[in-house]
Design a protein that fits this description.
3 domains; alpha/beta; Trna Endonuclease, Chain: A, domain 1; 6-stranded mixed β-sheet; single chain; about 15% strand
Length: about 300
């Protein structure tokens, strides 16, 4: 089925909100979402009847496909990266994807872990490039490979990134990704202090114990600074290698893998990044099989 409705850009912005983590969480937790219902009512209006008998999973795929062509925002890019690179080039058995990874004053949109850290900075047609160089400078302190992924128009303005060793990808209208040029390795510029800050407490303590055979025994209030002082003295290559291995384990959960695999293509990125309980994951997968009219009844 093709969504044969014409929307204004502000309506597309509203329609894209059905992909927000808060909406997914609400659907998974309660089996319905007032916000989801309002979005459909306000953007589809009487056209709601044309999609009422479709499954929720089909609605998400249908709207994603439409927005991908007409309003390619940040989520579109994230989800294409999840499908084409994490689940296409790689797999959940060998790789995992993190989103919104904080590095100093920047936040990497996506990071794929599969033997190394590869960061992806999204610059859609709706983003400006004012902070890009500062963001890339921060990413160089943690990630081996760094890519900017953008649209065709912006790609022409970013060819200078090649001389910086940054890779450039282009998201095409049909949802495919083209490589303009590849990223060079950035391992020599890794800053262990910044690498430490993307790790969870149990992760950096494990690495320190493995590489120094030292079990830290200090008060909790002092642990962060004490551990960081030790971590920055580790061999950079070994510390980086162990960091990649242990961060990748965040995706080792069989339950999470099954949840990601069973969600529709339009929701892969949200399945990865939305924090849901075991019960909520199960509820959401069941909800995806219901017709929209059975989910929003009484509210439309």
């Amino acid at each position: 089925m093709i969504l044969k409705i014409t929307f204004h850009e502000n309506q597309l912005s509203s329609l894209s909100n059905i992909f927000l983590p808060s909406v997914i969480k609400e659907l998974a937790k309660f089996g319905s979402s007032m916000r989801f219902n309002r979005i459909l009512r306000h953007t589809l209006g009487e056209n709601y009847l044309t999609i009422a008998d479709l499954k929720l999973s089909s609605i998400y795929d249908l709207i994603f496909e439409y927005i991908q062509k007409k309003y390619p925002n940040e989520y579109i890019y994230k989800n294409v990266l999840a499908n084409k690179i994490l689940l296409g080039t790689h797999s959940l058995n060998t790789s995992f994807m993190l989103t919104e990874v904080c590095i100093k004053n920047s936040k990497a949109d996506c990071v794929i872990v599969n033997g190394t850290f590869t960061a992806y900075e999204i610059k859609s047609k709706y983003d400006n490039l004012d902070r890009l160089l500062k963001q890339l400078d921060d990413y160089k302190k943690v990630f081996d490979k760094i890519y900017v992924i953008t649209d065709e128009n912006k790609a022409d303005k970013l060819t200078y990134l090649k001389d910086m060793g940054i890779g450039l990808l282009k998201l095409n209208v049909n949802g495919s990704i083209s490589t303009v040029f590849k990223s060079k390795s950035n391992k020599d510029n890794i800053d262990l202090s910044c690498l430490f800050d993307i790790l969870r407490r149990d992760e950096y303590l494990f690495i320190i114990k493995k590489l120094t055979n030292e079990k830290l025994d200090v008060p909790n209030s002092e642990m962060y600074n004490y551990a960081k002082d030790i971590f920055v003295t580790l061999d950079k290559g070994m510390a980086y290698k162990e960091a990649v291995k242990i961060v990748k384990k965040r995706g080792d959960s069989k339950e999470l893998k099954e949840f990601i695999e069973n969600t529709p293509k339009s929701l892969k990125a949200r399945a990865i990044e939305t924090k849901l309980t075991h019960k909520e994951k199960k509820n959401f997968l069941s909800l995806l099989e219901l017709k929209v009219k059975d989910i929003v009844k009484g509210d439309m």
